[in-house]
Amino acid sequence: MAFSSRQIVCLDHPPARLYGEVIQVVDSAQTCWLRPWVLVTEELTLDAREASDIVYPLALFRAAEDWEFLSLLPILDAKDPKGDAKPQLRRFLEGVWRARPELFRR
User: Fold this and answer.
1) How far apart are CA 27 and CA 9, in angstroms?
2) CB 51 within 8 Å of CB 36
3) Residue 16 domain-assigned?
4) Is residue 76 part of a domain?
5) How far is CA 27 from CA 33, 35, 102, in A?
6) What is the largest CA-CA distance in the chain?
7) In this structure, is residue 99 part of a structural domain?
8) Residues 59, 95: contact at Cβ < 8 Å?
9) How many other C-beta atoms lie within 10 A of the C-beta of residue 2?
10) Residue 64 is part of which domain span?
11) Which residue of 34, 41, 46, 101 could cross-link 85, Cys pair, CB 3.0 to 4.6 Å?
């Protein structure tokens, strides 16, 4: 599937998932430059907009369904965020990398 800039996509790594905005797809490297928005774990739903952008293999992403992302928008409007998403996001991304190392090899 071809993604476009500003599209909302999801990176699933059960039991968690990361939603974010596509900044750019680099077809030649088969990667997606993503701006994280929301990290959903078993315990928490975290605003990840303060985290750094990521560049991960394109094969890991899927288009987010409108209904699933729209239900998360109140998290982005919350005045009192539930913790710092950066450590959680780092652990999530490390888990993805460990689970699918073949996608990170060149």
Assistant:
1) 16
2) yes
3) yes
4) yes
5) 11, 17, 18
6) 42
7) yes
8) no
9) 8
10) 8-103
11) 46
